[in-house]
Each structure stands twice: as C-alpha cells, then as structure tokens.
Amino acid sequence: MSKRKGLLLDQQGTISAAVQRLGFTDWDFLTLDNLDAARKALSGRPPLVGLVVFDSARSWPARQLESLISRHQIEWIAILERSLMQDGDLAPLVARSFHDFHTLPLDRERLRMTLGHAHGKAVISRAAAEFPQHPGRFGMTGSSDRMQALFRQIERISTVDAPVLIGGESGSGKELVARAIHSHSDRKNGPFIAMNCGAIPPNLIQSELFGHERGAFSGAHQRKIGNIEAANDGVLFLDEIGDLPLDLQANFLRFLQEHTIVRVGSTERVRVNVRILAATHVDLHRAVGEGRFREDLFYRLNVVHLKVPALRERSDDITLLADTIFNDNIHQKAPQVRGFSSEALRAMQEYPWPGNVRELINRIQHAMIMSENRLITSADLGLPQAQQEPDTPTLDEARASVEKEIIVSNLRKYRNNVSEVARQLGVSRVTLYRMIDRLNIVL
Ligand SMILES: Nc1ncnc2c1ncn2[C@@H]1O[C@H](COP(=O)(O)OP(=O)(O)OP(=O)(O)O)[C@@H](O)[C@H]1O
Ligand SMILES: [Mg+2]
Asked: To test ligand 1's pocket by mutation, which of 138, 181, 320, 358 has the most ligand atoms within 8 angstroms of CB?
C-alpha cells in the first residue's frame, strides 16, 4: 500500500524525531524547518495533511504562516505545549486555520486518529474542489431549469441572424447572453461592440452611433467612425435601448431597414452588415404604450425575444454561483476564510436579490475580504439572518419513533397480547409496559 504523505514543519527537529519513533508505518513525513522551503514543497502536488510544531507562541511569523497554510487544500494540525493554548494570539490562529491540535507529550493513539481524520477530510475537500466547478454553458454558470431553457434558446438564436431583444432585471446577465450569442454565431470572428445608450449624453449619441466627418460640429476635429460602422461584420450590442432619444430612434430604424448609415456631416451612404442585439431592463412594450418608444422600432428589434430570469427565480443556482464566485476570487480573501456557512447559504436562498448576479458577486467579494470567520456568515454578506432550519429529530426522538413503530405493529400482529409481544421483542413484560406508557401507546 502506498504511504500517506504528510508535511511536518518543525524548527528544532525534536518532534520530527519523536514522530519517527512512533513508527507510523503508513505515513511518510517530509520535515522542513522554514516557511520558504515549505512554500516550495507545496508548489507541486501538495500532501493532504500538514503538522506545524509551535515551540513558542511566536515561533512562526503568524501572517506568513497563515497565508501559506490557507492557500492549499491541506488539513493542518498544530502540535504545541498545552500552556501555549492560553496565548491570546496563537489560540485564535489555531482555531481559525487548523483542523485540530495536539498537545505534548505526543500520544501515539490520539495522534494516529487525528492524522486519520485530517486525511479523510482532506480527501473529501480535494475531491469536491476537483468536481467540475462551472456547470453551465456559454461562460454562464447555472443548472436550474430556467437557465437550461435559456441555454437552449441561445443555441437556437446563435444560428440565425435576426435582431434579438434581451430583457431582464439589472445585473441578471443580459450582456453575458449577448456575448454568448455573438461568440456562438457565424459572426464570432467579427467585432462585438457594446454601447450603453443610457450612459451617453443625448447630444452625443448620434455621433457615437453613426460617426461624424471632420468639422461636422464644433469639436469634431477628426473623422470618427461610429459604433455601427465599427461593428461591421459583427455585432452591435445596445444596452438600455429604451434610453435612445425619440429623434434618434427614427434614424436607427432607417439603418435597420436599409442597412446603410450616413455619418454626421456627410451625405454619403455607407453600407454596413451588422447584427443588432439590444437589451433593456424596462418593459419596452409599456414604453411604446406611453409614447416613449417607437412602435415600429420595437417590432423591428423584437423579432426574437429573450428573457434572462431574475436570480430569485433560479434560486437552485445560488449555491453553485456562490461557490463559483468564491473560487474565482480565491486570491483576494482574508486568509482564514474557507467557504460559506450553511446559515449563509440559506440566507442567500431567502434574499430576493434586487441587483441579481452582480449584487451576489459584490456581496461575496466584500465578505471574502472582510470576514473574520472561517465560514462566511449572513452578517458578513450584509444579509438578514436565515430562518431556523426545520428541526432535525434528535437521536432520542428518532429512536423513540422507531421503537413506537415496532411495538405498535407487533401489538397489532399479536392482538394486544403483551406477553407474546414481550417475548417476540426480547424484553420483559414489565419493561414492555413501561415502554408502552412512555411512548403513549394506546392498547
Ligand atoms: N449566469 C451567470 N454566471 C456567471 N456570472 C454571471 C451570470 N450572470 C451574470 N453574471 C455576472 O454578473 C455581472 C452582471 O452581468 P451583466 O453585466 O451581463 O448583467 P446585465 O443584465 O447586463 O446588467 P445591467 O442591467 O446592469 O446592464 C457580470 O459580472 C456577469 O459576468
Ligand atoms: Mg448590462
């Protein structure tokens, strides 16, 4: 059987010698006396378990040690004199960053068990980490029914060249969907130009879209190619299309009908081949009803309509997204943070997420940096505390319910003959009567 590998950080080497004497035949320990060597040793395929010997409370530089040991999926065990656990700095460090600790003198049996537990736990966490992290498609995370339906729609839409109107709340992933359509369509080698109509001052939108000739207006020192022309042979993504001023909507409609543009200050018509993907977080149909959006343009853009579901409508995906975001930001976290508490995961399920995935990303990034806990809590995320979990029965309750079931079914079988049932169940009549009483069984 191949030996389990462990790392032993021991400056004096005394514990290492003592561990060797314990003769753990199934373990092979690499002993190192400094953190630089440890860092190098961990850069390959690191062991699953590490032991750190503390000769004194300050024997290792705390920050460097913590940053080293938080970086790898290794379960760490501290070895120290019991008195050191009174130290105000060391005890919290051990509690935060270590799987367990072992006090001196070494107790062979206890150390063997601690090593075994740590190894088992490390095997599980490493297997979990190697599990595919990004269930989903097109660079989007999600496995809920809603997202799978969206993936199927994106797939179908990518193969046609029609305009698409993408609806969905703020931060739900509309731009990501537009990029997915582009990168899976025949236009994938052409440009993807994104433009937010809501973020550009109305007097500049025309030249942003159509471009201008030199001298077209004061400040137009050079000819400028507009976004429509820049997106030639590719995709123009118009975010917040509802913010396009009414007069420009007419110009834009003309471009959609004729596939030509005229730069501001020019008379020349330029032919362009651009697919339009537009997004809106407002109800564009209502904007049409209220006279803020041209009906003819609406129908032109809305040939295909996609709706990105709000995060609260796909709460099945929240844990998956949270883990993905956690792993994407693993290098920017407080060293002791290891993941989410189950309470935090429940709080995330219960919260309505008005800012959708973007809000989820922001809250998790903040919590990963600021949390002082090993497992992020709802408070770290700035969310209301989760409701209590439905009570799981205690062992006593579970045992009582099984006992009751067995006694009742036997009483039924032997027509309430207590002596017979007692014999069948291997207890005395007195005991059986006591149980019938305690379990509130009606004879
Ligand atoms: N399913 C997803 N998987 C992974 N990341 C996602 C997913 N959906 C959205 N995101 C991320 O969330 C953020 C917001 O997404 P995006 O910008 O596409 O939203 P939006 O709907 O365009 O927002 P807005 O309405 O504010 O323009 C981005 O960082 C994006 O990468
Ligand atoms: Mg957007």
From this structure: 358
